[in-house]
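Budget justification note: compute hours in this period were largely spent on complex prediction jobs such as the one shown. Inputs:
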Amino acid sequence: MASVGTPDPNSAWLSDDELAMYRRRMPVLYVEAVPVRVDGLGVVTEVGLLMRANSEDEITRTIVSGRVMYGETLRDALFRHLENDLGPMAFPQLPASPVPFSVAEYFPLPGLTPYMDSRQHAVSLAYIVPVTGTCDPRQDALELTWFTPEEAASPRIVSEMEGGRGTLLRAALASAGVLP
Amino acid sequence: MASVGTPDPNSAWLSDDELAMYRRRMPVLYVEAVPVRVDGLGVVTEVGLLMRANSEDEITRTIVSGRVMYGETLRDALFRHLENDLGPMAFPQLPASPVPFSVAEYFPLPGLTPYMDSRQHAVSLAYIVPVTGTCDPRQDALELTWFTPEEAASPRIVSEMEGGRGTLLRAALASAGVLP
Amino acid sequence: MASVGTPDPNSAWLSDDELAMYRRRMPVLYVEAVPVRVDGLGVVTEVGLLMRANSEDEITRTIVSGRVMYGETLRDALFRHLENDLGPMAFPQLPASPVPFSVAEYFPLPGLTPYMDSRQHAVSLAYIVPVTGTCDPRQDALELTWFTPEEAASPRIVSEMEGGRGTLLRAALASAGVLP
Amino acid sequence: MASVGTPDPNSAWLSDDELAMYRRRMPVLYVEAVPVRVDGLGVVTEVGLLMRANSEDEITRTIVSGRVMYGETLRDALFRHLENDLGPMAFPQLPASPVPFSVAEYFPLPGLTPYMDSRQHAVSLAYIVPVTGTCDPRQDALELTWFTPEEAASPRIVSEMEGGRGTLLRAALASAGVLP
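Corresponding output:
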């Protein structure tokens, strides 16, 4: 996920070789966040998706996603990746409960779950995170686009999401009560 | 919901007139259950939908649904409606947690939520309930049909479900991690 | 709950006699909110409890609580009762998900559940709600007091809470990961 | 957790040295299960706790706990550790939803969270699992004892639980609606 999702600027202490080795031996823990806009009553009105070029130079969409570092709490990891992907002025509101709306299991080979990551076996705790400020994605993200829940759940957008995250996106909408 | 869903055999003490009056003055509390078959690891493999003729003699599909009576616990109500709709040999496994996977708000007029019930304002706590025995729906239900999660989430089945419950069904599949 | 909790200024159309009658015949739907302060990472740092005199003139503590009106969404009811109890400048952040952290079943007689309400059978959907503004309880609430999670979970505070809501408060802290 | 919790008989391919190295560089993913007995309506009536001697030869209590292996689904890991700790005739009913009731973050140093594991940074997804059969713990577990929810939540039992799992146990009881 890091190559196309959230780069880990702090991970220099773990060499690329080391990380590559771990990824073949252990499930790697991730956090993911679906950025949303909410109205005054908390209803999700818009969903923010990141548009990126993946390693095959195809345009794909994704959500905020990144690895949990050794010694780092889930909340710290979530905040770090939100800031990396949405910029320092997004003002994300992390949920009071640490229980994710879904747990996504990514495997190197397809078929075992809806999720796939050719680099690794990753297990991701996924959260819905309202953002109240201005999102300014880093340069490696081409664009952050806001969609209505209906648009976000459409087959076209779902099919553009990498690694099966269209399923995760629909689960996010369902948990917020706005899946069409 | 009672007319096409789960009749309340115990409700004789509340006359039809009284119930009709309450339904115009107060939100009415319901419980709903999505019956499922699970494999040995708890994965949902099939979803059971009730096929009924609604008041317009159209064939529609629904889930187990019924009112909570005065003095009755949610679990008692859930068990009573499961037994009414699936028969005494269904052996439902009620969840350890009383927290529903979703809360559905039915209003007499469409548009406010995905859910609608022309008779009343009803608020329903919805649960996924594995059943391990043999389902034998009462005569007012024409048929109980088992679908794979993929079939259950398909536009055709979703469109056949009454009162917007296709949305609730998809939310159930999402919460179980089997929404396609 | 209304007498000591959240008054319903809009309920004039439902006479006291009518409401009293419904309360003996139907479960009454409530929403409840545990107001909290959170830090920049979403961790609950303080819990707000309302101190009131109950109908026996004893000092008791409670949370935001009130009835859902006919035709009113859960979010509207939640917002209305939060505003009534905490004032117009509390700026509550209603959760993106409509699924409560717990469902409390209040019965007129004790023993069936941890919760009791001598006036009625009430079923309450309970939410944790971060507030970011200034709380200014109405006159019928003597005081809003902020407690640390440790203080809020202490036997003394739990025992001061009316209707068994100390149990609900502990469940709120557990769901936020801050129950000691 | 493995040394005092659930041994991983399949982990021979990962040498002790390798695992020790990973544990200093990456958060390690765990699953944990609170075994419970439920009545016909799904209410938790008893909680099963494992009594073991820890590495200091003190008697401590714990729950089912173990590492997720590379390539293994969460459900497979959960089932494997339940079978290891409770024997092949426990007949655990894994939940339909893969969302845990809580996420426990164990750190080598105390204070950051309620949970501590001197060997590693571990992140555990915790589930309530009803068991319907006969539990026959392996020899390294001295005893499986069933407690009522009241007993399990008592300060004495909570204080006997290793790594801060008394907090996790209380959260389990709260999520099942049976925390006193």
